[in-house]
Amino acid sequence: MKLRDLGESGLIRKIRERFGPKAGELPVGIGDDAAVIDLPENYSLVFCSDLLAENTHFIRDLHPPDSIGYKAIAANVSDVAAMGGVATHFLISLAAPGDLDWIWLEAFFRGVEQACERFDIALAGGDSASSEHIFIDVSMIGRVRSGQAVRRSGAKIGDGIYITGTLGSSAVGLERLKSGKMRDAAVERHLFPEPRYQVGAAVANQAHAMIDVSDGLSTDLTHIVEESKVSGRIYKDRLPIWPGAEEHHALHGGEEYELIIIAPELPAIVEGIPVTRIGEIIPSGLEHQLFLIDGTRESVLYPRGWEHFG
Ligand SMILES: [Mg+2]
To answer: Which end of the chain is more exposed for a tag (fewer CB within 10 A), N or C?
Structure first.
């Protein structure tokens, strides 16, 4: 069956069957002009969106559709966590050609559903349109304690630079996926990453600055030092490199969805996730830079992660 055979009303019916019950816990969920969400007292809304374009972010014949659905959600959950918040609801807008197989969409929504279960979030609505290529836009809504949103700009001299989990697995997985190798643990982590959806809120009142690793440690940590007008120093031998990954994967690989947390002091484990101190924030001159310490050698670490429009 093709999307055009299903039609928009058929598509909405299928989505309501799959996601309706959870969305039904909202004051107004799927199926009205707009959704309504209650916000607990002393919380602020935090929201973001992510647009995926076919042939730019994914290739229909290479990337499994369930992974595309899962990652579209996971990337946004990670961004909300990086603000010190917790994601709760999302909207999906989908543009797709009429000859798209329902099998593709069914798998896509299965991946979305998997993300809903893992991150305890619910679909609240969306829109659809016809288009030559597939476009997927996810808007994520979450909450953060009022006044506790963690910015990129708050890093202070003497703070520690911390990273959750490990680095490098997604970049290794992408290489293996492109080379047509069998799905192993690295490929699995690239296709189904695990954003630290509970860690961000747990450290929100201790963190001075935070960002998630979506474009690569070197690039995302550079955002922190530039926004905070400081410099940073990290130690090569402290990097929690994923077994099987190399230094360049860990330093520059994107789509890791680990959190970089800048704080005076953090415990070694937060919400069950290991947290490693990899360096510290230092004073800067005119240029806000990163330095990599390798034994007794120190070199400037330039941002060499993913560049949009590159
Ligand atoms: Mg981000």
So the answer is: C
CA of 78 to the centre of ligand 1 (A): 7
Domains of the chain listed by start with CATH number:
3-145 (3.30.1330.10), 160-300 (3.90.650.10)
- The residues near 260 (Cβ < 8 Å, ≥ 6 apart) are 161, 162, 163, 210, 211, 212, 213, 217, 220, 221, 224
- Asked if 170 and 250 count as a contact pair (C-beta separation under 8 A), the reply is no
77 C-alpha to center of ligand 1: Å? 10
Alpha-carbon distance values, 301 to 233, 281, 289, 295, 304 (Å): 9, 14, 7, 15, 9
Please state, in angstroms and rounded to a whole number, the distance separating the CA atoms of residues 109 and 21. Answer: 15
From ligand 1's centre to the CA of 35, what distance in Å? Answer: 25
Q: Rounded to the nearest whole angstrom, what is the distance from the C-alpha of residue 185 to the centroid of ligand 1?
A: 24
Whole-structure pTM value: 0.94
| Distance in Å, CA 116 to ligand 1 centroid | 19
Tokens in use for 74?
A: 């996971």
